[in-house]
Amino acid sequence: GKSAFVPSAGRTDKGVHAAATVISFTSWKDIPDDTMRDAIHASSQGDIRVHTVERVPRKFHATFSALWRRYVYLLPLDPQVWSTSSIENHLLHAVNRLLAPLRNRELDYYAFARDTPKSKDCVCKFQTAHAFLGVLPRTNGARVLCVELVGNRFLRRQIRVFMATLVLQALRILEVRGQLPNNAIPMADTTTDTCSSDAGINECGGAFPEPADESVLMYTVMQSDRDLTAWPAPANGLCFAGVGYPS
Questions:
Q1: What is this structure's pTM?
Q2: 41-58: per-residue pLDDT in tens?
Q3: How far apart are alpha carbons 9 and 68 in whole angstroms?
Q4: What gap in Å lies between CA 122 and CA 130, rounded to an integer?
Q5: Residue 168: enclosing H or E segment and its boundaries?
Q6: How large is the angle between the packed helices 158-176 and 216-223, nearest 10 degrees?
Q7: b/e per residue, 197-236, with b = 16+ CB within 10 A?
Q8: Mind listing the pLDDT tens digit for each residue in 87-132?
Q9: Quick one: which of 42, 47, 94, 247 has the most CB atoms within 10 Å?
Q10: Residue 22: strand, helix, or coil
């Protein structure tokens, strides 16, 4: 009847989805796997679905034993704005060119963290950082820009701030090149601390440095200045998609 401390593979903001997270806890009783699965299903009322129950060594910790975590952000593309594949590809190309310099490098992401003191270690490494176009299932062909990030660790609100800054900088590049569609709004949300559906490129936070080119995101990282980053992207576009542990 006692409550248990249950660490998870990664913390998420309210509204963020988790499709493949891991939790761990210690029990002094030998609880059958089916009993554990049924109890979690019953208590969560459908909000949580257990895929696997596995017994692990006592030293295992869902948070601290993880080697990497995978997040995916889905950004809906309004068909009235991103009306052709060539226009979508301009955005995709700009995003991937911004991400390329960050891969497999240990960098200080202090500028993208929130509620994190400067004295805290903010060094992270993205093993994977790339974007691709996709179609949401169970929709009428709704197209999305998908950004996948795999890293050894992530900071509070880091990905949401990173995504908003990344997309806004990509749009700025398209604007400079004359490739930006009319009324291209990067993200839509009704909360007060994120980019809103009525906001333009210059109204979503961030005193973005000039010139707008493929080095600007790395420049933002290196400056460690939160004034150069945007407000957090909406939480409902982010999904915790995987975690890796030592074999």
A1: 0.85
A2: 888 777 788 888 888 888
A3: 10
A4: 21
A5: helix 158-176
A6: 140
A7: eebebeebbbebeeebbbebbbebbeeeebebbbbbbbbe
A8: 899 999 999 999 999 999 999 999 999 988 878 899 999 999 999 9
A9: 94
A10: coil
